[in-house]
Write a structure and sequence with these properties.
The protein is of the alpha+beta class and 120 residues long. It is 19% helix and 39% strand. About 8% of the residues have low confidence.
């Protein structure tokens, strides 16, 4: 090994350490809404703007917390156990697609059960 080799190896290692690995793909909301059975039970990532949030308290103290995310292709509810993101914030959400059972004659679309969240 030449005297320069350790320095070159160190420089190469440091430059590679700063490189990002492959990014997880973001799924357009339209794709999930168009074929919900294809995505049911699968983990996906969506990215968009928060359009609203709601918390419904039920008997016995349980609550249902969700917010909506809209991208250029559609809008989807996201069920969360954490704090709500601010309205209008751009978020990337990772979660599992769920298909709630129909309620009477009302068919409810897919939703995402959040497992992680980040900014843009």
């Amino acid at each position: 090994m030449t005297p320069r080799a350790p320095a070159l190896l160190l420089a190469l290692a440091l430059s590679l350490a700063g490189c990002e690995g492959p990014r997880e793909a973001v799924t357009p909301i339209r794709d999930i809404v168009a074929a919900p059975a294809r995505f049911e039970g699968k983990e996906v990532r969506i990215r968009g703007r928060v359009t609203g949030s709601a918390e419904i308290r039920m008997r016995g103290g349980a609550s249902h917390r969700s917010y909506s995310v809209r991208d250029a292709t559609g809008e989807m509810p996201v069920v969360t156990a954490g704090p709500f993101p601010p309205q209008g914030a751009e978020v990337t959400v990772r979660g599992t697609v769920e298909l709630p059972p129909p309620t009477g004659t009302l068919a409810v679309g897919p939703r995402l059960r959040e497992s992680g969240r980040g900014g843009r």
